[in-house]
Amino acid sequence: MSAEWTTVFKNTSGCLRNVSSDGAEARQRLRECEGLVDALLHALQSAVVNKDTDNKSVENCVCILRNLSYHVHKEIPGMERFQEPHANHLMRSVGHQKKKNDPDCFGGKRPKGLELLYQPEVVRLYLSLLTCSHNHNTLEAAAGALQNLAAGQWAWSSYIRATVRKEKGLPILVELLRSDVDKVVRAVAIALRNLAMDRRNKDLIGSYALRDLVGNLPCGQQHPAKNLEGDTVVSILNTIHEIITDNPENARALIQGHAVQKLVAINKSSQSARETKAASHVLQTIWAYKDLRNTLNKAGWNKSHFKPTTTGVTKKSKGGKQGGDDITLPLMDKNQDVYSSLEPNDRVGDGK
Question: Among candidates 259, 324, 294, 322, which has minimal Cα distance to 71?
Fold first, then answer.
């Protein structure tokens, strides 16, 4: 009788949602809780089948899964066996061969507990939510779950990145860049950044997402109609940086998309030190491609436009979050593993 949509289920999942945002120990306890991940996935699958994806229970479930997916590549037991590039032989044992008429969508031996969090099959579930739901919190959480699963340098994240592409998930994410909701745009942008660590994904994202990413950037003192928060602007800039790194064709497309004017304006006049730094990294990466300099010069740009700005007023961005798991820290350092998102300080009680 749709037990998952009762008030009891809503409040219980809300409680677990709060617990799941309370740090590494809480995440690990919940991952080890027998049957929990199974139940959450079952509830979401039921919601998709019944086309009932906008309620609070769905929001709670996907938020829990997003939080439990945070740092899963660092916190699960035995994770060191799956660190790239030594894990390829282990990945061959993954259940690729699904039996026909097998009701178990995970095929073969069903993974247990926390292993369900990062099976490639969950990608399909999150993409379905991103396609069907109109709940902004659910959209943010589903994008954040993909963002987390695509984070890190381990075999499963590589497989997840490829699975999103094969499941036609990239166009779904690109479409959501056009959302008017700041947190949805931010979560999707960071997810695309992680997905772009896959070479084929990087080419596709460069071809189809750059226009929307650039369109979300402010131009000097003129902010776009969305008036995105500073954290989101920085996330978009970091995503653009990932897309053009080691990819001159994407950098050329960025120039042709008239992005340099916006990047120079941010670098020169933004009052946010983080926005300035992120824009500067993109500009320096563009200028490093010597084959593109002639094109830039013809457009009226010279070396001085691509130098980092050393002065400026540092201000806190609107809505900036604090804490050790802050997903909006500058993500320029390739050794800095802060690509995944947690939901801190989000409480879902029905009372005041």
Answer: 324
pLDDT at 105 over 90: no
pLDDT tens per residue across span 35-65: 999 999 999 999 999 999 999 999 999 999 9
pLDDT at 146: 96
Residues 6+ apart with CB under 8 A from 223: none
Residue with more model confidence, 351 or 19: 19
Strand partners, 83: 154
The 10 Å Cβ neighbour count of residue 24 is: 14
Task: Tell me whether the omega of the peptide bond preceding residue 171 falls within 30 degrees of 0, making it cis.
Answer: no
Instruction: Give the C-alpha separation, 30 to 66, whole Å.
Output: 12
Q: Average pLDDT, whole number, for the chain?
A: 81
Instruction: Calculate mean pLDDT across residues 311-333.
Output: 37
Number of H helices, E strands in the chain: 18, 0
pLDDT exceeds 50 at position 312: no
Write the DSSP string, 49-117. HTT--SSHHHHHHHHHHHHHHTTHHHHSTTGGGGBTTTTHHHHTTS---PPTT-S-TT-SSPPPGGGGG
What is the value of pTM for the model shown? 0.82
Q: How far apart are CA 22 and CA 24, in angstroms?
A: 7
- One-letter-per-residue 3-state SS of 151-192: CCCEHHHHHHHHHHHHCCHHHHHHHHCCCCCHHHHHHHHHHH
Listed in sequence order, the residues at least 6 apart from 13 whose beta carbon sits closer than 8 Å to its beta carbon are: 40, 43, 57, 60, 61, 64
C-alpha distances (whole Å) from 330 to each of 94, 232, 235, 288, 327 are: 35, 11, 8, 21, 9
Phi, psi of 154 (to 5 degrees): -140, 165
Q: Is the dihedral of CA 268, 255, 317, 179 positive or negative?
A: positive
Provide the pLDDT for residue 80: 60
d(CA 199, CA 226): 31
Residues 123/113, Cβ–Cβ less than 8 Å: no
Q: What pLDDT shows up at residue 185?
A: 96
Q: What percent of the chain has pLDDT over 70?
A: 75
Handedness of CA 138, 139, 140, 144 (dihedral sign): positive
